[in-house]
Amino acid sequence: MATFANCRLSGDSQKYITIWYTIDAAPILDELNKPEYQCNHPPGTHAAVAGGRDTRGFWLSTDTAYYVPPFCTKLAMAYLQRRCRPRGQLCGRSKPSP
């Protein structure tokens, strides 16, 4: 399990996200528990608010519900981590033996 601040992966809000994953994804996703993925911005400095409602009654979290591209990249890396060998190389079909 990892919990990190959305703003540390280029999100507009502080919104903390918790994800659960298998041990296979841990080499990539455990990193999100490190201090550099926890919010260190002064209160009130984020461009967006992830909680509450606006003046028309709509949830403010709607605008921050998507996963930002850097987080999607981390998820893809974790997925590939398990499926690719040797570690760190992209998957590919091997050439047939002569």
Your description of this structure?
The structure is a single chain. By secondary structure, the protein is α+β, with helices and mostly antiparallel strands. It has one domain. It has helices at residues 26-29, 69-83, and strands spanning 2-5, 16-19. A two-stranded antiparallel ribbon has the order 1-2. It starts with a strand and ends in a 15-residue tail after the last helix.
Overview in brief:
The protein is an alpha+beta fold.
Features of the shown structure:
98 residues, alpha+beta, two-stranded antiparallel ribbon, 2 helices, elongated
Topology:
Layout: E1 2-5, E2 16-19, H1 26-29, H2 69-83
Distance between the termini: 45 Å
* Proportion in β-strands: 5-15%
The major pleated sheet works out as: 2 strands, antiparallel
DSSP helix count?
Answer: 2
The gross shape turns out to be elongated
**How many structural domains in the coordinates?**
1
Range of helix content: 10-25%
Integer-rounded radius of gyration: 18 Å
Give the mean pLDDT.
82
> In order across it, which strands form the biggest sheet?
1-2
Structural class: alpha+beta
The oligomeric state of the chains shown is: single chain
Low-confidence stretches: none
What pattern of helices and strands is seen along the backbone? EEHH
The count of DSSP E runs of length 2 or more, i.e. the number of strands, is 2
